[in-house]
Amino acid sequence: MDMKQLAEDVIAGNRRALARAITLVESGRDDHRAQAIELMDMIGKSGRQALRIGLSGTPGVGKSTFIESFGMMLIKEGLKVAVLAVDPSSSRSGGSILGDKTRMELLSREKNAFIRPSPAKSELGGVARRTREAVGLCEAAGYDLILIETVGVGQSETVVSEMSDLFLLLLAPAGGDELQGVKRGIMEMADLILVNKADGDLKSAAQRTCADYAGALRLIRKRPQDPKDFPKAMTVSAIEDRGLREAWEEMNTLTDWRRVHGFFDKRRSEQAEYWFGQDIRHGLLSQLEKEPLKSMIAELAHQVAQGEITPGHAAADVLKALQQG
């Protein structure tokens, strides 16, 4: 594969080339990894920058419906939208349904939209290991906004906040102790909490839920990267396209404030440093899957299981072998 030609095609906005490039960076093969690094070096020179928005929410909250309605609204404004939707993978087979594209029927037909479902595999937070590089490829291809949809709600969702400029938490109307079900960690990361399905019989419940979360946000310690009144909670109806424009205006307000006060570029720099460390960790872990360490670990695991050696002693032997190798 000619990396220079592929990079040129991606920068020219060729959708087929973009799909091939993302497939390349997602590959676990060593030769593909080397090509992916070369490709990312080339496309990094494009200088293009998109607004990266991370989106998480409980299953059934309507993330796909929201993304489709929100994306269609932005496309009508002349923007190009990319969606990187990460599906959960089976821990047994490694398979993934990858059904997001079928749930975004209208958006998937738009020439100014690009939807890429990817399996989460074993990554914490449901973010595929190379999603960050897929974001860079979409930026180079000229997309103005990139939505990164992640799986579930939990503290491991911090991963998506390390590759996005804004983090949205989408929630459904509910009563009682629903607030207890959302981790404090993800509440502290959210820039906007959007209570979806604020329509029909659920409209009043959505307004009450929004008020509950607004109250909870006031109890969270103020973050330096936020202007007054942020983070905030709002109600939206993806199915009726209500509240989407107001939410988009709030996103722009927050982004503009962070750009003016230097927090936007500072955060991008911190994220680059974070992913440098993550790539080193992944590289070190991948060494454990190669011979002779792989066989050594299997033998030591057997000895640990038989009680012939302690787990700490066995781990020390592996680390010693890794240092010597």
UniProtKB/TrEMBL annotation:
Pfam families: MeaB (PF03308). Keywords: Kinase, Transferase. Gene3D superfamilies: 1.10.287.130, 1.20.5.170, P-loop containing nucleotide triphosphate hydrolases (3.40.50.300). InterPro entries: GTPase_ArgK, P-loop_NTPase. GO terms for molecular function: GTP binding; GTPase activity; kinase activity. One of its GO terms (cellular component) is cytoplasm. The keyword Transferase applies. The keyword Transferase applies. Signal peptide: none annotated. PANTHER family: METHYLMALONIC ACIDURIA TYPE A PROTEIN, MITOCHONDRIAL, METHYLMALONYL-COA MUTASE. This is LAO/AO transport system kinase. The lineage of its organism: Bacteria, Pseudomonadati, Pseudomonadota, Alphaproteobacteria, Rhodobacterales.
